[in-house]
Amino acid sequence: MKNHKNLPRSSNRYVPLSSKDLLSLCIHPEARKAYEIYLEHFPIGHVAQPKGNKVHLDVLYDRLNFYFFDNFAEQLGMMDSTKVHVMKTQPTMNSIELESWRYVWQAFLGLKPVNIKIYNQLKNQMPKDIQRQICGRLLTIEHTCQKMVISRPKFEYQKAKQKCLFFEMPKFEELVQRNVNGD
Length: 183
Prior knowledge:
Shape: globular
Largest sheet: 5 strands, mixed
Order of helices and strands: EHEHHEEHEHHHHHH
Number of helices: 10
Strand order of the largest sheet: 1-5-3-4-2
Number of strands: 5
Oligomer: single chain
Structural class: alpha/beta
Helix content: 40-55%
């Protein structure tokens, strides 16, 4: 991995990632929270969207690992036969966090109908400075309605409709903790 000959020095083209190198593909720590929200709260049909047998990812390469920070749907839709192509980039830590949240925000805007649970997660978990950079201000219902081109009453209707009680699968960590505690 130390001397990866196929990886370009500049970020001007995508190159195939070998199956050996694929083992060192992981989420960047600065993008972890956005990725977690994407995994845990987006509908499964939206989360893993295989788009053929080729995936293109922008990565930060540190001579050990290939860190991806956006394009979560393609990454999650990979199968054994998927060919992964990467382009080495040199983003700043701030831009990695910004791009990961921007990806989740754009994916949220594409959901129909609006998912109130995801809206609340974004509003509460997305850092305030990132909200300002992406939206131009703090995330509000009015701004979300404008971006999704829906009326406030439709948003409120979905909010009331989605408050119905339903079974929610506990998080993996919670299940492990229950098992450890014997609950």
